[in-house]
């Protein structure tokens, strides 16, 4: 199994693509550049099985319908943000990009209601609820590959912003400490923006996590 980080969309948000030996793939947070991204997936011979959204801010969802329509694959999103896909005010695209470029996406096919195991084909994830950056933020942990897709919860030497509607810094810090930092230190953190890191590196050197 292998994975790749592909920055997409207006904020170059990290989309992640993981694939198995059969070229089946899971897509995380396809943030934009939909036509080009679909072409890339086709050129790679990949067969997306699902789109997993860590949350529904505009920069993480811009290419969702391009991928879903091209490959007939379902979208997973937490219940606390299920209305954000269709609402450009809630997903913040109106605020950041203006009404002419506002992003609307069809509703999610599967709603995440709780922390649980999620099996899609040969891929087995643990879903962690990690709110704080947004109320429906989740992280997807692939234990077999020692990687967690954290969205905008935890970054290399930083944490997600909490000044947008529904954000809560105390809640985010609790999510990070109680869920993410409990993972093995060698676990790779596949962040929503910037470079990847590891749980151990953030435990040792992230200035936002000291003194919590």
TrEMBL record:
Alphabetic keyword roster: Hydrolase, Metal-binding, Zinc
All residue ranges annotated as the Metallo-beta-lactamase domain in the record: 12-193
Cofactor: Zn(2+)
Protein's name in the database: Glyoxylase-like metal-dependent hydrolase (Beta-lactamase superfamily II)
Any matching Pfam family: Lactamase_B
UniProt organism field: Halalkalibacter nanhaiisediminis
Family annotation (PANTHER family): HYDROXYACYLGLUTATHIONE HYDROLASE GLOC
Highest taxon in the source lineage: Bacteria
Lineage, uppermost ranks: Bacteria, Bacillati, Bacillota, Bacilli, Bacillales
Gene3D superfamilies for the chain: Ribonuclease Z/Hydroxyacylglutathione hydrolase-like
Listed GO MF terms: hydrolase activity; metal ion binding
């Amino acid at each position: 199994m292998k994975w790749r980080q592909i920055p997409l969309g207006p904020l170059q948000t990290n989309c992640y693509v993981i694939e198995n030996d059969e070229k089946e793939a899971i897509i995380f947070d396809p943030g934009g550049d939909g036509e080009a991204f679909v072409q890339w997936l086709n050129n790679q011979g990949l067969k997306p099985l699902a789109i997993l959204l860590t949350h529904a801010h505009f920069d993480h969802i811009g290419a969702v319908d391009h991928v879903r329509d091209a490959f007939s694959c379902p979208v997973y999103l937490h219940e606390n943000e299920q209305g954000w896909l269709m609402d450009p005010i809630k997903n913040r695209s109106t605020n950041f990009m203006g009404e002419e470029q506002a992003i609307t996406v069809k509703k999610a096919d599967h709603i995440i209601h709780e922390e649980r195991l999620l099996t899609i084909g040969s891929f087995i994830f643990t879903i962690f609820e990690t709110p704080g950056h947004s109320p429906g933020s989740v992280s997807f942990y692939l234990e077999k590959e020692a990687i967690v897709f954290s969205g905008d919860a935890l970054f290399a030497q930083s944490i997600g912003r909490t000044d947008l509607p529904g954000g809560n810094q105390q809640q985010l810090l609790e999510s990070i400490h109680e869920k993410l930092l409990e993972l093995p230190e060698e676990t790779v953190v596949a962040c929503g923006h910037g470079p990847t890191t590891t749980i151990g590196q953030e435990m040792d050197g992230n200035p936002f996590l000291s003194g919590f």
